[in-house]
Specification:
heterodimer, A: mainly alpha, 39% helix, B: 488 residues, alpha/beta, eleven-stranded mixed sheet
Chain lengths: 99, 488
């Protein structure tokens, strides 16, 4: 896998990997990608993607029920902020997002 | 003094009759942890005060004659990817060091309601990604049967704690085999329920279409007690099912081995596996046959693609799930002049190498230009695997396989070879892909003294049958009663 593709993936994944780390990762990724590419040999024409609903549909209760669309008590602001690495006056403090 | 090898069932009877007090039982467990866990490394945290406070509270209720569940007063260890309100929960990752959840996982609420004593947090591979518990950022866990060997993973702490007689019951989680493979390697009994049988609310997610929480303990009867408490619909996890929860303990005796048809998937026995594993597991199948069960060969020819399918699906889902660890809301925060740098540095510093590898692979298979060829393809192959399982179950009631291709491997042996490490899950991953339940229990030992496990794979919602078939086996054999001499 080329370095620029790995750099792009690292950017998408928000991982600050150095180029030497990416190069080490490249070897691993190449082996895994080669190993999983064996799936290409399997004919999946007209095959739908998997979902668990088919098994649920067999259950006595039928397909899964959604819950009522009702607001129920959630976390207080204090609870939600309790693990914050840095708090601001009204929430989580972060560096500027826009200039 | 109670034997550390007592079953949860027997302890429950003693607690109910008040010949045993929960405080006494938990003091004993704490003493054993103090004496032995420095050699094993099963526990990440043990809060003795909190444990004894719970035990004393339950003792008061039992003294007053309250009718409580069979779990009341029993200490249960918790894998550290399950949120316990106010207690550090880390998934064995630096990125969650110091994190104290503001809520209990569903299974934790259920255990509290049943009167169980939440006993410590147990080690795991970081974010449940691994098959040896060596990927924990905190410590190694050692197999109590042979301390140079791994306990398996990712629920290695949960398995080792039971194997060494530290606790009678623990909770683990299983995404590709993480309850069943360590149960096999540590000689304990473990169950991955049907997908949707147990709510995943409060489980630090790895792969949302594969993860399930399940019980681990000395025998199937003990697993029945724990599963009874945690199974059932929870509106906070809409993938949990309203399928009625049977009386698992009551169903243990409803077994007619003579009417049982056991499928032996040819491919699971023809692949590369230890001869001793093959022979020992086949002997277990013959044991069922001697009592009237019918053995039939079935084919799961697509199992050779299960690891590839699992690698793609699980890493894709993990790359999405682990996106929440951004250094902003909780957990480790790294340096950063801007928001992107802050997130990227936080994640790079906080995650271990295996987690980063899987996030990168998952990001790749979901990325533009590769999504169809990898992720979509894998989800279609997954349906084919599920259809093949359905055809196999037309010919049999249950599948019987080894839990692992080998009896065990040494700490450090596979750390430089991730592909070999992934192959440790060959027997188990397809069960998660399909969503059916799988149970592992000990059926013998290798010539080197390591436990060998057999796996029973059932149809959807057949946990009661699996537990009953396993309990029958355990009443007519004694492998599950053996324990490592070093911790006698």
């Amino acid at each position: 896998m080329e370095l620029d593709r790995l750099q792009h993936l690292a950017k998408l994944a928000r991982l600050a990997l150095r180029d030497d780390e990416l190069e080490a990762l490249a070897q691993h990724m190449d082996k895994i990608v080669q190993a999983v590419s064996t799936l290409q040999d399997i004919n999946t024409d007209d095959v739908e993607v998997f979902n668990h609903d088919d098994a649920f549909a067999e259950a006595e209760q039928g397909p899964r029920r959604l819950r009522p669309d009702l607001v129920t008590p959630s976390l207080s602001a204090e609870q939600a902020l309790a693990n914050a690495p840095k708090q601001g006056p009204q929430g989580f403090a972060v560096p500027a997002i826009h200039d | 003094m109670t034997s550390p090898w007592s079953s949860a069932f027997d302890l429950s009877q003693a607690l109910k009759s008040r010949s045993l007090r929960s405080e006494q039982l938990c003091q004993q467990a704490l003493e054993r942890v103090r004496c032995h866990d420095s050699k094993i490394g099963a526990f990440l945290t043990v809060d003795a005060d909190a444990i004894l406070e719970q035990a004393r509270a339950i003792d008061q209720r039992l003294d007053a004659g309250e009718a409580l569940s069979p779990l009341a007063g029993i200490p249960v260890g918790i894998k550290d990817n399950l949120c316990v309100q106010g207690q550090e929960t880390t998934a064995a990752s630096k990125i969650l060091s110091g994190y104290k959840p503001p809520y209990d996982a569903h299974v934790i609420s259920a255990l509290r309601e049943a009167g169980a004593v939440l006993f410590g947090k147990l080690n795991l591979d970081e974010f449940a990604m691994g098959s040896s518990t060596e990927n924990s950022s905190r410590q190694k866990t050692h197999n109590p049967w042979h301390l140079d060997y791994v306990p398996g993973g990712s629920s290695g702490g949960s398995a080792a704690a039971v194997a060494a007689g530290l606790l009678p019951l623990t909770l683990g989680s299983d995404t590709g085999g993480s309850i069943r493979q360590p149960a096999g390697l540590c000689g304990v009994t473990g169950l991955k329920p049907t997908y949707g049988r147990v709510s995943r609310f409060g489980l630090l997610a790895f792969a949302s279409s594969l993860d399930q929480i399940g019980p681990m303990g000395r025998d199937a009867r003990d697993l029945a007690i724990l599963l009874q408490a945690i199974a059932g619909r929870d509106d906070r996890d809409l993938t949990s099912s309203e399928e009625p929860v049977p009386d698992y303990l009551g169903a243990l005796e409803n077994v007619d081995i003579g009417s049982m048809t056991i499928g032996l998937p040819t491919e699971f026995f023809e692949m590369t596996l230890d001869d001793e594993v093959r022979q020992t597991v086949m002997a277990a199948a013959k044991h069922y046959e001697a009592q009237g069960a019918k053995l039939v060969d079935v084919s799961l020819s697509l199992n050779k693609h299960a690891i590839a399918c699992y690698q793609i699906v699980s890493t894709a889902e993990a790359s999405s799930n682990l996106g929440r660890y951004d250094g902003i809301h909780y957990g480790h925060r790294g340096p950063g002049e801007d928001i992107i740098e802050l997130m990227a540095k936080s994640r790079d510093e906080g995650f271990g190498d295996e987690v980063k590898r899987r996030i990168m692979l998952g990001t790749f298979v979901l990325s533009t230009g590769f999504y169809d060829a990898y992720y979509l393809k894998a989800q279609k192959v997954r349906r084919l695997i599920a259809e093949e399982y359905a055809r196999a179950f037309e010919a049999c009631d249950v599948l019987l396989t080894p839990a692992s291709p080998i009896a065990g491997f040494k700490i450090g042996e596979n750390m430089d070879d991730p592909l070999t490490m992934y192959a440790a899950d060959t027997m188990t991953v397809s069960v998660n892909l399909v969503g059916v339940p799988g149970l592992v229990m000990p059926c013998g030992f290798s010539s080197g003294g390591l436990p060998i496990g057999l796996q029973l794979i059932g149809k959807h919602w057949s946990e009661a049958d699996l537990l009953a078939w396993a309990w029958w086996y355990q009443q007519s054999t004694d492998f599950h009663t053996k324990h490592p001499e070093a911790f006698a």
